[in-house]
Write a structure and sequence with these properties.
The protein is globular. The longest helix is centred in the middle third of the chain and has 12 residues, at 135-146. It is built from 6 helices and 9 strands; from the N terminus they run βαβαβαβαβαβαβββ. With 219 residues, the protein is of the alpha/beta class. The protein has a 9-stranded mixed β-sheet with strand order 5-4-3-2-6-1-7-9-8.
């Protein structure tokens, strides 16, 4: 059985994922309430986050070559990275105190140099696709091998849109911010061709105009 997949994003009133300052405290408070066993994070999102929030990438040290010893109640960070674009950046994820450890999803075309890089640092990786990641196979793996029942992703639109297109999403959680981005908007559902059936089952209004909407996704 596949785990439940929740897409959780902070968006502007006109549906943009970028070009505004999200309320990260509220965003992660809602995300934490889902208590996922795994966070599915796109490699582009990781790279953008590191560049945005880190003052330069910190160098690796001896600890970064060892698996962290943290509570089993913490979620894994599962990162698709077929091209090895996060070489030299993954330790910034592993250091995050609320990450149990990093699991990397690769494909048959992933450079051997990157696989060696992962092995040397004791990262678990799984080959789940020929050229691109097979998302359904990846979710099945997380369920069978790691006993993951609930996956949350708050990544950018590329990975989220693929999950919706492939009918792998159980729930859509949107924290709507009281701001209009306009011409610079990067629409959350900009690449979706299908139109899944949605049922609003929860909504909550927070101070300063933030609205949380949670939908069940059918098909």
């Amino acid at each position: 059985m596949l785990p439940r997949v929740i897409i959780h994003n902070s968006i502007s009133l006109d549906g943009s994922l970028t070009s505004f300052e999200p309320n990260m405290e509220l965003h992660y408070r809602i995300a934490g309430d889902y208590k996922p066993q795994a966070h599915l994070v796109g490699s582009n999102t990781v790279e953008a986050g590191v560049r945005l929030y880190e003052r330069g990438v910190p160098p690796e040290d001896e600890k970064d070559f060892k698996k962290p010893e943290r509570s089993e109640s913490l979620p894994f960070w599962v990162i698709p990275d077929t091209k090895g674009m996060l070489k030299g950046l993954l330790h910034t994820c592993r250091r995050f105190e609320f990450c149990r450890d990093v699991i990397v999803l690769v494909s048959e075309t992933t450079p051997n140099e990157y696989l060696t890089h992962l092995k040397e640092r004791n990262y678990v990786y799984h080959m789940v696709g020929k050229k691109h990641i097979d998302l359904e196979k990846s979710l099945a793996l997380l369920s069978s091998k790691y006993k993951v029942k609930q996956v949350l992703t708050d990544t950018g639109r590329t990975l989220g849109n693929l999950l919706i297109e492939q009918s792998l999403v159980s729930e859509l959680s949107l924290l709507v911010h009281p701001v209009i981005v306009g011409r610079k908007s990067y629409k959350i559902f900009g690449n979706i061709k299908k139109s899944p059936r949605l049922r609003l089952y929860r909504k909550e209004v927070f101070p300063k105009g933030y609205v949380w909407l949670a939908y069940k996704v059918h098909g």
